[in-house]
């Protein structure tokens, strides 16, 4: 049909966006979802889970040798994360702009980290940094064959009667 002539592969590009434990705890999930929806991107996957360390090690393969890696693991396992897949034209590059610089102190106002971030270990969101990276991360986090502790197990979320 016409789609063959009119669409480009960038339209179906996908990226992995995760609201990190501090973002979930601070009730920022809705505002973050809203930013991506307003921008015209399409939500094509979402799940909430407490990330296992082995999954995080795979996710952050390039950081494993850094001295601060234990800090990253501690931060990312401090509570559940909300992992989403968003689709749209140039979504990988646009998301990185919307999310802002890694260090919230350097992130522009108007970006997620510039508006809500506190510290590199409290920077609210993750966004894939390349199309290839996004494909790898989507496979990793949304592989249905993987066993997770999901939100159905409330004890894993730190939700208690306290
Ligand atoms: P990115 O999340 O902006 O792509 P990366 O360099 O891939 O940045 O780092 C991944 C995550 O690791 C960051 O979002 C941040 O939470 C954490 N991180 C990066 N650098 C540091 C650091 O120097 N100290 C502690 N945590 C860090």
Automatic annotation (TrEMBL):
Annotated GO biological process: CTP biosynthetic process; fatty acid catabolic process; GTP biosynthetic process; UTP biosynthetic process
Residues of the full protein shown: 40 to 201 of 490
Keyword Transferase carried by entry: yes
Family: Belongs to the short-chain dehydrogenases/reductases (SDR) family. 2,4-dienoyl-CoA reductase subfamily. Belongs to the NDK family.
Residues holding ATP: 20, 68, 96, 102, 113, 123
Subcellular location: Mitochondrion intermembrane space; Mitochondrion matrix; Peroxisome
Organism of origin: Synaphobranchus kaupii
Name of the featured protein: Nucleoside diphosphate kinase
Keywords, alphabetical: ATP-binding, Fatty acid metabolism, Kinase, Lipid metabolism, Magnesium, Metal-binding, NADP, Nucleotide metabolism, Nucleotide-binding, Oxidoreductase, Peroxisome, Transferase
Residues at the catalytic site: 126 (pros-phosphohistidine intermediate)
